[in-house]
Automatic annotation (TrEMBL):
Region entry Disordered, spans: 600-621
UniProt-listed Pfam families: DUF2264 (PF10022)
Superkingdom per UniProt: Bacteria
Protein's name according to its UniProt entry: DUF2264 domain-containing protein
């Protein structure tokens, strides 16, 4: 980050933090610098930050509210346990609240009844008000308190979709209840019942899945379904049933973190999968929450190593522009990642990554010496069973990969593949090709696709997890070919059974076609690596695919497009011509910093493939 406001950045402390060098003072400094950098963009009454850049679908006024609310969350965490407020964050945001909720003000915020996105920001403001209560809420005049309550009370009767948004409703209502405002207890209970029904297992939640399947999975499972559930309890402390509910949510969070805590590379990068990735280090909000609610499955020093590693990863790779503003993108500003609902203020959802500031400096998370994450020490493969992921981290290159047999983000009616959900593999060092299929006649990353005689490449918009254990996962899907005219759906092809076996940086990917098929080829592809890496991206990546059964040829597809890690994306592929039904086609896929030692495959007496790994271990598909 640049800019002159605020104190100088603290020096690294390699005694206390041997892996990241960062301490609580660094996170506090980041909060101060990012908040001060916003002030030049404030409206006169501090009600909004009107940041440069194109507005979202909700318009520029909502974008300004988003910037206020989400940065106020950082201020709330910063002030929660603070003994002083040298930059007067409390005074700044208190004035903004007074202006924005004054019905006579030209800067007043849209009502919750009129603006759906304001319902999200109301919950963020509620948490910030709760955390900074002694600094801000308690010092507001009764008139301003009444104005704020009136604005938040617009949540009563407003529609919140049956999704993670129900937590926004409940958190807002809980704050209103805590300050003697109006609230709808019956609706809160109804919401809690629905949200409990979204829990799959092991702390993982499905989000608004219309057909009851568990495929709507991304980082929202942590930064809303987990973190907001426990903050609802924090704001509701003392209410009947809250302690019991908090105990349930804490156990779920602990289980969730056991899997999600492994989705960070040695350099701090979170897994690059799903939507809203411009929120960046919000991904560690749930980990900090584990420490706040005594739901941390890791040692305090291990948790801090992961959390601070992720925050530092983004800060040091250009997430903040030269003027100190948090940009849309991943490493640095990357406008192509701006989804339609992303405003210039939206990336400040990353404030969730500052949650650790509510813990005092004496807390073991801050006082203990950093401890290594598993990826710092050894190779490890494990399963996140409820969502069908095999997760492989390799110490030699620091990369984490997730092999996907359970997350497709599809509804009742299949739609075109979404690159950030439907691929077979994701990693902390790469991103997908931003195309849904091989419509350009080239393989995109991490596919299993049939090419029909019209040259169409099949997609897997919907697939079903069949089984998963620590090293093996199996799924099935119907190969679907998009029709020529948009909106006309798919032609169905044969069913494909896909099995992944994972060791280290290598995935053995086996495919069997379930019925007669008239296809030109079967293609299995690997990870996309940019020939022109973006600033801050790795430059040492080796992505490869090799056939392990007879008849396969290999090649490389290059896409003259960009993703978050760079341009001219190179995808290795393996092709089997004229594939036959009821026969296994097997390839090995790898991503690392060097070419691996490949396994071999031979058929057993019944014709089933048997994999021999370089270690000598034998495994049957």
């Amino acid at each position: 980050m640049s800019g002159d406001a605020g104190p100088q950045s603290p020096a690294d402390d390699r005694r206390l933090s041997p892996y990241t060098g960062w301490t609580r003072r660094h996170l506090q400094h980041l909060a101060d610098r990012s908040l001060l950098a916003l002030r030049p963009w404030s409206t006169p009454g501090h009600a909004r930050f009107d940041l440069p850049g194109p507005p979202s679908d909700s318009g520029p006024i909502i974008g300004g509210l988003e910037a206020f609310a989400r940065s106020f969350l950082a201020a709330g965490f910063r002030l929660s346990g603070a003994e002083s407020d040298p930059h007067d964050h409390a005074g700044w945001y208190a004035r903004g609240l007074a202006t924005a909720t004054d019905p006579a003000s030209s800067e007043r915020w849209p009502s919750l009844a009129d603006a759906a996105q304001a319902r999200v920001e109301a919950a963020v403001i509620a948490i910030a008000l709760h955390e900074s209560r002694r600094w801000i809420w308690d010092s507001l005049t009764p008139r301003v308190q009444e104005q704020v309550v009136d604005w938040l009370a617009g949540s009563i009767g407003s529609r919140y979709p049956d999704s993670n948004w129900l937590w926004f409703h409940n958190v807002t209502q809980a704050f209103l209840r805590s300050v003697g405002g109006p609230y709808d207890q019956a609706k809160m209970e109804e919401n809690l019942e629905f949200l409990d029904s979204c829990h799959l297992a092991d702390g993982w939640y499905s989000d608004n899945r219309p057909d009851g399947r568990g495929g709507n999975i991304d980082w929202y499972a942590g930064w809303v379904m987990q973190q907001f559930s426990l903050w609802y309890c924090r704001v509701s402390a003392g209410e009947p049933g809250t302690a019991e509910r908090q105990a349930v949510y804490a156990e779920r969070l602990k289980a969730y973190l056991t899997g999600a805590g492994a989705l960070f590379g040695a350099d701090g990068a979170p897994l690059h999968q799903g939507r809203s990735l411009s929120y960046r280090h919000a991904a560690v909000g749930a980990l900090w929450t584990g420490a706040v609610f005594d739901a941390n499955p890791y040692s305090p020093g291990r948790l801090r190593r992961t959390c601070m590693g992720a925050v530092k990863y983004f800060v040091e790779r250009g997430a903040f522009d030269e003027d100190g503003l948090l940009s849309p993108g991943w490493l640095g500003r990357f406008e192509a990642m701006r989804e339609s609902y992303i405003s210039p203020g939206s990336p400040y959802w990353a404030s969730l990554g500052l949650t650790g500031l509510v813990l005092p400096e004496s807390h073991p998370v801050w006082a203990d010496v950093e401890q290594p994450a598993p990826i710092d020490l050894e190779d490890r493969v494990g399963a996140i069973r409820p969502i069908g992921w095999l997760v492989s981290g390799t110490a030699s290159d620091g990369i984490v990969r997730a092999i996907n047999h359970g997350v497709d983000y599809s509804g009742v009616v299949p739609v075109a593949e979404r690159p950030l959900y439907n691929r077979f593999g994701y990693s902390t060092a790469t991103a997908p090709v931003p195309l849904s299929d091989g419509s350009a006649g080239k393989a995109v990353d991490n596919q299993v696709a049939l090419i029909d005689r019209r040259g169409r490449w099949s997609q897997r918009p919907v697939f079903d997890l069949i089984s998963i254990d620590d090293h093996r996962a199996e799924s099935r899907h119907v190969a679907r070919f998009a029709r020529a005219e948009p909106g006309e759906g798919f032609d169905e092809g044969p069913e494909l059974t896909c099995v992944s076996l994972v060791r280290g940086s290598v995935e053995v990917r086996a495919v069997r076609i379930g019925s007669a098929v008239r296809a030109e080829a079967l293609v299995i592809s690997g990870f996309a690596v940019p020939r022109k890496p973006a600033p801050g991206a790795r430059t040492d990546l080796v992505s490869a695919v090799v056939p392990l059964t007879d008849g396969g040829s290999i090649g490389i597809a290059v896409h003259a497009v960009e993703n978050a890690f760079g341009a001219d994306l190179e995808v290795p592929w393996c092709r089997f011509d004229a594939p036959e039904p009821d026969r296994w086609y097997v390839a090995a896929v790898s991503l690392g910093d060097r070419a691996p030692s490949w396994p071999t495959v031979r058929p057993d007496a019944s014709g089933q493939p048997v994999v021999t790994w370089p270690s000598g271990e034998i495994e049957r598909v």
